[in-house]
């Protein structure tokens, strides 16, 4: 297929129902207590939060993430408002755009803390955060009806995410 001199083609990665089930399990340590969460994450150099509720919790505890990714909603319906963000990206619910993965990689390779607002859904962005984050980063994301999950990034977590990502269906957006 010839795409030279055409508009940039973007790919959407979509999880199969089996992969969705895999993604619904917490991968990391589940915290239900804010004080224990704060005590744990403070030992890390870079904290990355994905989700409105966990980002809000961290900020309320005086912890400013290196990268905070929100979509202004919780459970896809309850409007959380739009906190001040420096960057807006588009990522449809239930998919992971290749262009968004590239943007996350660019941010994580930088040195500047940033907050990102996602038009659509931010849940899948845990995947590129793990893939492109540094060893020793801690990723904090919400586990519905359970609490906050903290995952220390290292080679094993990237291997697990690559295995899951290999099961996604790739389509043109």
UniProtKB/TrEMBL annotation:
Which pathway or pathways does this protein act in?
A: Cofactor biosynthesis; coenzyme A biosynthesis
> What EC number(s) would the UniProt record show?
2.7.1.237
Could you list this entry's UniProt keywords, alphabetically sorted: Coenzyme A biosynthesis, GTP-binding, Kinase, Nucleotide-binding, Transferase
Role according to the record: Catalyzes the GTP-dependent phosphorylation of the 3'-hydroxyl group of dephosphocoenzyme A to form coenzyme A (CoA).
The protein depicted here goes by the name: GTP-dependent dephospho-CoA kinase
As its record notes, the protein acts as a catalyst of:
3'-dephospho-CoA + GTP = GDP + CoA + H(+)
Alphabetical GO biological process terms: coenzyme A biosynthetic process
Return the InterPro entries for the record.
Answer: GTP-dep_dephospho-CoA_kin
Q: Which Pfam families match?
A: DUF359
Enumerate the residues binding GTP: 52-54, 71, 73, 122
A molecular-function term among this protein's GO annotations: GTP binding
Similarity field? Belongs to the GTP-dependent DPCK family.
Q: Which top class of enzyme applies to this chain?
A: transferase
